[in-house]
Structure formats: C-alpha cells, structure tokens
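Single Protein Entry

Contents — chain, fold
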Amino acid sequence: MALNLADLFEHAVDAVPDNPAVKVGSRTATYADLERDANRLAHHLQQQGIGAGDHVAVYAKNSIEHVVAVLAVLKIRAVSINVNYRYVEGELDYLFDNADVVGLVFERTYAPLVAATAPKHARLQTFVAIPDATAPDDASDISAFGGVPYDEAVAEQSDARDFGERSPDDLHIIYTGGTTGFPKGVMWRHEDFWRVLGGGIDFYTGVELEELDQSRQALEPRLVTFPMSPLMHGGAQASLLMHLFAGHLTILEPKFDPATVWQVVEREKVQLLFMTGDAMARPLIEEYESRLGTDAAYDASSLFVISSSAAIFSPPVKERWMAAFPHGIFSDSVGASETGFQGMGMQDPAHISTDGPVVGLGPSSVVLGDDDRPLDLATNVGAVGRLGRGGSVPVGYYKDPEKSARTFLEVDGTRYSVPGDFARIEEDGKVTLLGRGSNCVNTGGEKVFPEEVEMAIKAHPAVYDCLVVGLPDEKYGQSVAAVVQPREGQAVELEELRAFLRTSLSGYKLPRHLTLVPEIPRNATGKAQYPKAKEMALSSWAPAAATAGVTA
C-alpha cells in the first residue's frame, strides 16, 4: 500500500461502499458509484494514451462528474490540473501551455472557449465533455476539436480497479488563484498533500495518521459537510478529498446563492459549513436574518461548526453569526496552496480579534525573522515575521525554479514553504495573521498590512465590503487608499471614515484616499483581487489632491 490519494479514496470505498459520498442538488453518488464511474473514465483516458505523469485539466463548476474526473485522473497516476472556469481565452491559453495539458475534461457550456483555444496546443488531444452543472441539456458543438460526450466515453469501459501499484511520490498539482499575477502550479507529493491538506495528520497534536485510519473512521456515523467554494479552488478540493477519505457526505453546489445554501443546510441537516470569509459570510447571515421571526425562517439547527479560511471573516459579521448560532463552534483557518494547513483559531463572542485572525500554529508552522530563521514564540511577543511551514512541503512551482527558490527556503538544513504571509506573534504561542507581504503598503517607512485596515473599515456601519491598496505618493512613497462598497442607500465620506478609524488604527494606517465602487472585485472563491482594486483606486485618484486636507 502507498500513501497515495487514489489509494486513500479506495480504502473508503472498500469500507463503506453504500454510504452516500457526494450530493449535488437532487443527485447523490455513493462511494461505490464514484468508484465505478471513476474507473470507467480512467480506462477511457488510458485508451487515449494518458498515463502516469501526464497532465489532465478539469474545467468545470461543482458537479458529481467533476469529482469523478479528479478521481479518475488520480487512479491512473496522472496529474489533475484545476482550471478557473471564469478564465477568458488568453488565460486558458496560458494555463494549457504552462501546465503542459494533454487531456481536458470540461463542462460542455465551455465548448466555444475550448474550440478557440485547443488548436493552439498541439499536445492537447483528448477532450471529454461533461454535462453542464446548471444547464445539463447544453448541446454546444464539440466535434470541431474531437470532443467526446462523457456518457459515450464511459459507456463501454470496464469498471474494474486494475490500475496497478501507485507511489506516495506521485505528483498532485494545485494552480494558485493568480490574484497577484499569473497562476503558478504548486507541485505536491501525494503523501505530503495528504499530510497537510487531506487529514493525514492531527492538526492539533501533530501526530501522523496511518494509511487506514481515515477509512476506519468511515465505519463510524458520518458527518454532513458543505464546502461552498468551487472545486477549482485548492481549499475546496482538499476539503472534499479529506472527507471522502473518512467516509463523510460532502454537499456541493455549482454556484453560490445564499438562499440555496440555507435550503440545503435545512434539507440535508448539514453539520459543518466551510466558507471564504465575508464574501460568503455576510450575504449568508443577512439572508438568514431576513427570515427570522417569520413562518419561513430557516431551520439550521443541525449546524454546529462554521469554518472560514482564505479571506477575512470580519468582527462585525462574525458577531452576527455568533448571535444567530450561540452554540456553534467558529474557527478561522490559516493556510495556502503552498503550505497547506498552518493553524486554526477557535472564536467566541468575548474574544474576537479586531486586527486579523488569531490562530494557534499547527505542526511545523513557524514565524521567520528577517534572517529567515524561526523566531522563538515565547521571547518574541509583538514581533512581525513571515509565516512559514516545515515538514511536508511542496516540491516547488511547476516550471518555475526562480519563484520556487524564493518561496521554498532551506534554512539550517530544514526546508520551509514561505509564500509571503506576515504574522505578529502574540501571547501563548498564537499569532495574528496580517496578510500577504506583496500587498503591503510602505508609507513613510511604515508597513501597513491591508487586511488589518480592511478589518477596521468593515466595522463602519455604512460599509458593506472593502479592499485597501497603496497608491504612489511623492512625500511618503506610498499612501493608503480604501476601495469601498457602501451598503445600499448609505454614504461613506473620507474624513468621517478616518475619524471612525482613529480609535482602532494608528494615524499612518488611516486611508488618505477613498474610492466608492458598486462592487468589490473578488474571484469565484471570494478572494480579493487587489490588482483590480488598485486600478479602481488609480482611476479616481487626483494626484494634485493626494494629501490635501488630510493629516496623519
């Protein structure tokens, strides 16, 4: 047996074949269903000449077929490549070329973009079209590039599990969201991915699990989990795999809609809800509150764990959730595609941080000082450094040794993944996450972390959402600028906002510019699009008035 992602799924299949594994809308697939269909698709891919080490992209919204496709690729020791379904032609071209894709499983509604892109990539020869998750009768033409409908691809294939021995050294690649540039493919060994993202280690104690431990858990009563992010996001994919390995039921939806989420929670008795910060948390709690005290109130009594990661879950929004679910367990998780799980903080109404997520560091997580060496947490309270992780870390970025060298460091014989998030050391070995250093605003020599300022701005009653960026400033080098989406019917003015913030932020952190926008730019998972926000701020920026009437 090998510590391989396909093997870990198959152990769960053998333990609980008849358990429901994935449910999307009214469709449910058991573990045996996923196994059968993944084996059939895997055999089809093999017939096209695809095998160990080949790269197969999955280009689709959340669906049962999306899950089957990922599992099929893993089973034949190929490498699945996650594709952002919001990409335009140029972005698809970049990804297909950068990732050396030879096969593509895609949602049929994207056929026109595939037709425009495929001829430019000679190595890309295999195309399987799965039904559209929201429009299953889509009949877009796929003949021009040799596409095969999913049903035809698997119709005559064997459902046998006859793929041979696998290796813990097989690669699994997660392409990052590309919020600060082109996406990068993070290369993980299967065993390392399992250890830090698939549940292969106890996140609190650091004790490593044995290969069959999760499948033994599958024999116990299952949990009903609902990760709301798209599977094309690494965090959602990891959540799915972790819960498949342990025999749980994972609920998926092809698109995020607050009312639908609460209907699903009520109908399926969801116990664990995973979301991406305020981008999901705010519309969700507002929809839930809108029904309170009415005959149509949502029944979410089954829900007992609410977890947020990858984006700010701000104090005002968190307080509303805690008021609505006083017996719920709330957690902020910290991690990245390059590190996996790094830490978790359990939240309660009396101890909500106003600066950023406060978490206890997980196994092998460290804070590195300016010399790239780990800081002692006990003697460096208040120090700010880069958050990193040792132990099971990625091999590097695919085809990018230069960026790999900057992110994956070897210090005194230990290898660390350090993607650029900064953290402040707190008492009791905890840290406050400050945000990505690449977004840091350097104003007059002082470093301002946008997420800290965003947390404070979101406490303003007229603010719905915001991002903070740096703009050029002749005097200070950069100045802090806030891009704000006001609440409907509300007004936000710079000086009033600055006065509001003075009780929680130092003067140099206060925004000197304010840009009001109808909607904050975020990607499909809710992650901030800082380059786009900076474009918005620059378009409304008047250099001549950069500091007029504004004092620190």
In short: The mean pLDDT is 90.
